[in-house]
TrEMBL record:
GO MF terms held by the record: electron transfer activity; flavin adenine dinucleotide binding
Stretches assigned to the Electron transfer flavoprotein alpha/beta-subunit N-terminal domain: 4-187
Keywords: Electron transport, FAD, Flavoprotein, Transport
InterPro entries, A to Z: DHS-like_NAD/FAD-binding_dom (IPR029035), ETF_a/b_N (IPR014730), ETF_a/FixB (IPR001308), ETF_asu_C (IPR014731), ETF_asu_C_CS (IPR018206), Rossmann-like_a/b/a_fold (IPR014729)
Organism: Streptomyces cinnamoneus
UniProt-recorded name of the protein: Electron transfer flavoprotein subunit alpha
Entry note: cofactor: Binds 1 FAD per dimer.
Amino acid sequence: MAEVLVYVDHVDGAVRKPTLELLTLARRIGEPVAVHLGAGADTAAATLAEYGAVKVLAADAPEFADYLVVPKVDALEAAYKAVSPAAVLVPSSAEGKEIAARLAVRIGSGIITDAVDLEAGDEGPVATQSVFAASYSTKSRVTKGTPVITVKPNSAAPEAAPAAGTVEQLAVAFGEQATGTKVVSRTPRESTGRPELTEAAIVVSGGRGVNGAENFPLIESLADSLGAAVGASRAAVDAGWYPHTNQVGQTGKSVSPQLYIAAGISGAIQHRAGMQTSKTIVAINKDAEAPIFELVDYGVVGDLFQVVPQLTEEITSRKG
Ligand SMILES: Cc1cc2nc3c(=O)[nH]c(=O)nc-3n(C[C@H](O)[C@H](O)[C@H](O)COP(=O)(O)OP(=O)(O)OC[C@H]3O[C@@H](n4cnc5c(N)ncnc54)[C@H](O)[C@@H]3O)c2cc1C
């Protein structure tokens, strides 16, 4: 069976969920071979094997942490040459897309970004993308070279399928450009204890209806009762009620969780663009005519200051 390279997103060997989703999707088109760069390959290998990696190609070098992107492209290209895979899958993060695009240029291949599903096809893997603010789904196939495909987080439920996961060292020769952009400092982001917005299985977002920074703890409490990430509309972040890093939409982050709850958000096209592929959408809005109700699975017409605390209380009591 053809091998499929899966680029591993991890923190010191702790594999992040989008990679497990990629391994699950990779198994539909071939045998997953994971590419692990940086420290922690031995730790990661157990998880990667559990989710179907037949092999883990590992390389560790200071360049991966000390310089931006290019050393990782050098390594992924080395893995590509070693394996001659049927496809290369990379998580759709900002960095992932840059790595994938650079690899595609180097190996003369077509690329598909932000896939939300992947299936085997007679002439190569077929990727589904959600386009035009998620108002259309398209299916495409790379027609030139080895398909390089980036896949959005939450596109598949990770399924375990134990495989060997044998760790093999990958020899990487860094090119001249590898040391072109040096990382000069790192400041860890203050942890909220909540999941990363773009990867979270549940997102609770607040909009202008939240009516002030002082009311955002209502949204945070509901999010915490569900183990969710917190998002916000542009109106809310522009008003300074919540950080810009939490903005969902066309000019913010794109999320695709299992459950998206929008409170006090009207559903403007630019907001939809960042959340419309969510599996289940719930809106709480006091205006029954709000456009958000056109796309929801469940809608609550009501005042969020009444509805959200009751919802939080009910969820918390059911958990207890
Ligand atoms: C180029 C461009 C890019 C943009 N990018 C983005 C983007 O990335 N993300 C984004 O979100 N927007 C973006 N926008 C802005 C977008 O057009 C909307 O203005 C914005 O999404 C509106 O935010 P909102 O829904 O919170 O506010 P509003 O549209 O004002 O809606 C507030 C809603 O809250 C409801 N409400 C009020 N009080 C309550 C209450 N007590 N209980 C329940 N409901 C209540 C109201 O009925 C209303 O429906 C962009 C715009 C442009 C032009």
